[in-house]
């Protein structure tokens, strides 16, 4: 649920980025981030071996911080490359999120016990 709530604002934002309406997808994204981070932590705690659980949590936190650092820079590069076209910029990043759904589903089928 949290993952879907994280993706939907990215898909909606290109079409409502003007004026005050930009706060609606941003609000949903802010609320969903709580579910996403808690769900990711619980899933990682479930699938990581007991001896490597702390290491896995550290890698996940490093990935979140790296994404938070590189993401805005990458978005600004895409935005400047598309001549400030927010629709193309948001949709290009939305494709990354949609691709991650398939990666997680593949990972779940391959590594998680049923």
How would you briefly describe this protein structure?
By secondary structure, the protein is mostly helical.
> How many strand segments?
0
Query: Helicity range of the residues?
Result: over 70%
Count up the helices: 4
Outline the biggest β-sheet. Answer: none
Quaternary organization: single chain
- The portion of residues forming beta strands comes to under 5%
Overall average pLDDT: 77
Shape descriptor: elongated
Q: Terminal Cα separation, in Å?
A: 19 Å
Classification by helices and strands: mainly alpha
- Element order, helices and strands? HHHH
Number of domains: 1
Low-confidence runs: none
- The value of Rg in angstroms is 16 Å
Keywords:
4 helices, mainly alpha
Architecture blueprint of SSEs:
Elements: H1 2-12, H2 23-47, H3 53-81, H4 86-111
General description of the model:
The protein is mainly α and 114 residues long. The chain has one domain (2-111). Helix content is 80%, strand content 0%. The longest helix is centred in the middle third of the chain and has 29 residues, at 53-81. The two termini are 19 Å apart.
């Amino acid at each position: 649920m949290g993952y879907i709530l994280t993706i939907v604002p990215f898909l909606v934002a290109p079409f409502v980025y003007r004026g005050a309406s930009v706060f609606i997808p941003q609000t949903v994204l802010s609320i969903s981030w709580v579910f996403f981070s808690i769900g990711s932590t619980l899933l990682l705690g479930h699938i990581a071996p007991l001896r490597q659980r702390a290491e896995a949590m550290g890698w996940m936190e490093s990935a979140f911080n790296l994404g938070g650092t590189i993401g805005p820079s990458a978005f600004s590069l895409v935005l400047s490359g598309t001549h400030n076209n927010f629709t193309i910029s948001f949709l290009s990043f939305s494709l990354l999120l949609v691709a991650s759904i398939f990666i997680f589903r593949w990972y779940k089928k391959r590594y998680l016990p049923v």
